[in-house]
Amino acid sequence: MSYGSQDEVRVQDRIAADSISLLKRTKNNVKGWYFYSFSSEPFAVSAVAIYIPLLLEQFARTNGVTVGDHSKKCTSNQDKCVLGLFSNRIYIDTSSFALYTFSVSVLLQILVVITVSGLVDVWKTVTFKRRILMVFGALGAFAVILISQLSLNQYYMLAALYIVANTCYGVVNVVGNSLLPRFVSDLVEYEQGSEPLSADILTTVISGKGASLGYGGSLLVQIFSMWLVNESKTQDNIQVAVLFVGIWWICWQSPMMWLLQDVKPAFFLNDHSSTNYPVRFEFRLLKCGWFSLLESLKNAKLLKDMVIFLLGWFIVSDSLTTINSAAILFARTELGMSTLSLILISVLTMISAILGAFFIPHYICPRFQLTPQRTLIYIICWSSVIPFYGLLGFAFENIGLKHPAEMFVMSVWYGISIGGVAAVSRSLFSLIIPPGRESTFFSLFSVTDKGSSIVGPMLVGFITDETHEIRYSFYLLFALLVVSIPIFNSINLSRAKKGADELRRVDPEALD
After folding, report:
1. What is the rounded distance in angstroms from the CA atom of residue 307 to the CA atom of residue 167?
2. Which residues cross the membrane (predicted)?
3. d(CA 305, CA 308)
4. What is the dihedral of CA 29, 33, 38, 44, to 10 degrees?
5. Which residues of the chain have pLDDT under 50?
6. For residue 482, how many C-alpha atoms fall within 13 Å in the half-sphere facing its CB?
7. Which of these, 317, 334, 449, lies nearest to 401 by C-alpha position?
8. Is 233 exposed, middle or buried, given 0-12, 13-18 or 19+ CB atoms closer than 10 A?
């Protein structure tokens, strides 16, 4: 009897030890997820939003000619200039060069993201997703570092390297976001507490912390970049700031190599048949992302509210992304603001974004008992003030983005908007996706997000080419934000969760 009791004690001790080990791995995965946001977000927030658009405009202006006389080189930041492309067959506004390049980069990003997302869904392991994060992160960071070494006449190479870097970031972003529901599910399963954890609340909290850390990293990058630019010989050297972004990305992603791991590795290694885990890589697996995406679209009748969400997200993401690009180029070309001033604006945006990403889901939502859906609608209303204020410049001489000081005020307003949207949108989307299909549906989320970024900058580029005045684009941006409000208001969250649960049982034959 005593031996039996000892065996039972040993079994219980082993179970307790295994539970502790599983919980430790789960918590390490969450820490690794934070490093993904901390390392890569500065590229999107600093390089994509500020530095590279300015570089693209600067390179275009240096190699451009005046609008009225194509034989006369641009000599002043106040000149209205165009850049001749393809042996001067076409001429585009120097500001449009940045917008068009961004649109092309997003188009390629979408194609690569869909392909890779299906691949990681087939493998299903954290280890494989970690490898994807590390490889594409290193490639993107290397492209950013090369950008910092270009000379002013290499504007084609600048555009090409930016396209590569932005494509890599898109893959990192989708694969990283797809890990969030997985880690939350593990925490709910293995965390032993007096009260059961709520997946909805936990998703919002972790997403908010990740967004805050991402913007926090961006803030540190911006502050150090201000010092680097100020210490440069010309005090206007944007490339030294770009170099720092690339080094930051490749260095801070390294802890993911040790933190991200499968919670139950033996389960995947010993039971391929039950998990659809491939034994080796085959090129035919690259089509799985497209097949899975098509299957998801075929089953859209079960996901009516997801379609509504993605339509609204297409519009909102397009507007907010384009607002940033248009505002930065507007500040440079119309208000003549210096590089240091623009970086300072970005710092204020980051501080506001951190506050928005942290306080909105942690304090404002609980305090006023707001659902993620309702919170997102209020944030959209808040964001629409920005383009509306820019339109006031047509009617008034002294207000409506007429002075550099107004840009600092709007940067705080915009920062709160993007911080809140980053936390709330991912949280809301995580609640309505089918379990086990996270990468595929987050790729759909990213396709919608990035796909909209093709349209917005392209349209603003057309408007700028026709008018040589970026302010006219604020009409478009304000209208888009207003239209998105009734779209999000029509989402039925309980119906969305039910549809996701039904789609979870749909198993595409090609993934067998």
Report:
1. 25
2. 33-56, 97-120, 132-150, 156-175, 212-229, 241-260, 307-330, 342-364, 376-396, 408-429, 441-464, 470-488
3. 5
4. 160
5. 1, 11, 266-275, 508-512
6. 10
7. 334
8. exposed
Q: Quickly tell me which residue has 């290193």 as its tokens.
A: 138
| The pLDDT of residue 484 | 94
Q: What's the pLDDT at 17?
A: 55
pLDDT tens across 130-156, in order?
888 999 999 999 999 999 999 988 999
| φ and ψ of 156, to 5 deg | -65, -45
Give the pair of three-digit tokens for residue 421: 């949207």
Measured CA to CA in angstroms, residue 511 lies from 278, 288, 411, 446, 503 at distances of: 10, 7, 46, 22, 15
Q: What pLDDT sits at residue 266?
A: 43
- 423: nearest Cα among 218, 169, 210: 210
Q: In this predicted structure, what is the pLDDT of residue 159?
A: 94
Secondary structure of 10-66 in HEC code, one letter for each residue: HHHHHHHHHHHHHHHHHHHHHHHHHHHHHHHHHHHHHHHHHHHHHHHHHHHHHCCEE
Cα dist. 401→53, 59, 322, 323, 411 in Å? Answer: 20, 25, 17, 13, 12
Q: Tokens representing 459?
A: 């349209």
What confidence tens digit (pLDDT) does each residue in 367-413 have? 888 888 899 999 999 999 999 999 999 999 889 999 999 999 999 99
Angle at which helices 94-123 and 304-333 pack, to 10 degrees? 150
DSSP code, position 107: H
Q: Which helix (H) or strand (E) holds 85?
A: strand 81-85
- The upper half-sphere exposure of residue 240, i.e. CA atoms within 13 Å in the direction of its Cβ, equals 17
Q: How far apart are CA 183 and CA 185, in angstroms?
A: 5
Residues 245/46, Cβ–Cβ less than 8 Å = yes
Taking CA atoms, 309 is separated from 44, 270, 481, in Å, by 23, 39, 14
**How far, in Å, are 1, 43, 287, 365, 491 from residue 52 at the CA level?**
74, 10, 33, 35, 37
Six-digit token string for 402: 């007429």
Q: The whole model's pTM is what? A: 0.77
Give residues with Cβ within 8 angstroms of 461, minimum separation 6.
Answer: 92, 93, 95, 96, 99, 100, 103
2 exposed, middle or buried (CB, 10 Å; 0-12, 13-18, 19+)? exposed
pLDDT computed for residue 193 by the predictor: 57
Amino acid, res. 360:
I
Closest CA to 166 of 141, 130, 135: 141
